[in-house]
Amino acid sequence: MENSQERKPCGASRTIMTQLVFPQDTNHHGTMFGGKLMEYIDKTAAIAGTRHARKPVVTGEDGRPAPVPEVYPETEEERRLYESALERHARRLERRRARSGN
Hints:
Layout: E1 8-9, H1 34-53, E2 71-72, H2 76-100
Parallel strand pairs: 1-2
């Protein structure tokens, strides 16, 4: 992690994507293809990550994680999400373990 002077507010990398969904983007149920949604999420995450890190964000230049500036919350919603991040991460890992049977 970079030094505390490198900290950035959450809003500095906030990214909002607007996309029209056309009939070719939907399945026979009239809902968007999951893969198409994942494509939009991946693009938006790449933009937000690049804004935050000020460099391309991919599976690192040498395949290793690179240090990036720490974020800090500004709004009440950001504070709530920031403070609950470790707990939410732990729950996701538990669900993943439960699904895999480990």
